[in-house]
Amino acid sequence: MTALLLEERGRRGVRLAFADRGPGIADVDLALTDGWTSGTGMGLGLSGSKRLVDDFVLDTTPGAGTTVTVTKWGR
User: What would the CATH number be for the domain defined by 2-73?
Assistant: First the structure.
């Protein structure tokens, strides 16, 4: 995980990036569907994260891993 504090146009925020070298995500739309899980989870990880932040970027390549970058700005 990497973390970056941001300041832009008078506002402050934080950007976090999470990366793995796993199998990647074959079907991103399905993975972002509430309730869908690839295992025993609740199926709210990616979709819930996306709802909680201001910017959500998912970069994945099947067989090469996934990086999720989220940004949240202060109010």
Answer: 3.30.565.10
Comparing C-alpha atoms, which of 61, 52, 63, 64 is closest to residue 16? 52
- Tens digit of pLDDT per residue, the chain (75 long)? 999 999 999 999 999 999 999 999 989 999 999 888 877 777 678 999 999 999 999 999 989 999 999 999 997
Contacts of 20 (CB under 8 A, 6+ apart): 65, 66, 67
Q: List, as own/partner pairs, every contact residues 56-64 make where C-beta atoms lie below 8 angstroms and the sequence separation is at least 24, other chains included.
A: 58/25, 58/28, 58/32, 60/24, 60/25, 60/28, 61/24, 62/23, 62/24, 62/25, 62/26, 63/23, 63/24, 64/21, 64/24
Q: What is the pTM of this model?
A: 0.87
